[in-house]
Write a structure and sequence with these properties.
Helices cover 57% and strands 9% of the residues. The two termini are 29 Å apart. α2 crosses α4, α3 packs across α4 and α4 packs parallel to α5. The chain has 160 residues and is mainly alpha-helical.
Amino acid sequence: MGVGKSTVGALVAERLGCVYRDTDDDIVAAEGRSIADIFVDEGEPAFRAIERRAVREALAGHDGVLALGGGSVLDADTRALLAGHQVVYLSMEVEEAVQRTGLNVARPLLAVNPRKQWRELMEARRHLYTEVARAVVATDGRTPDEVAQAVLDALELKEA
């Protein structure tokens, strides 16, 4: 959350000459409401089911750069679908997250004590991110352009 996946994903896609897509955007478009609203109205399990379908559909029908929501790797089926894809985990420390977002944006899983919640989420998810990732790219102290280049370098991809 707040790592810059949308910005970096769009930059990587532009440099590769392909299309960028974000499953969070797909969910909002399909559901006609924000992710935060889905969490509030239906709860996290319902959102995760919607997210699982969105990721499955996107992986099946998209050949460009695809950004996934931070919790999508919680689902074992999604992790299995990611096998064989060039997955990059964009990592960030909590101090950087605070600087970038102040941890005060509309993020349903960070509603109470955002620093503590962010740390707990990362502790619970980090091993899943590294499990599916072909490369880990630290974003701390880097501009989006620098992160995009690091992604291309890590995957040994050349710009179009």
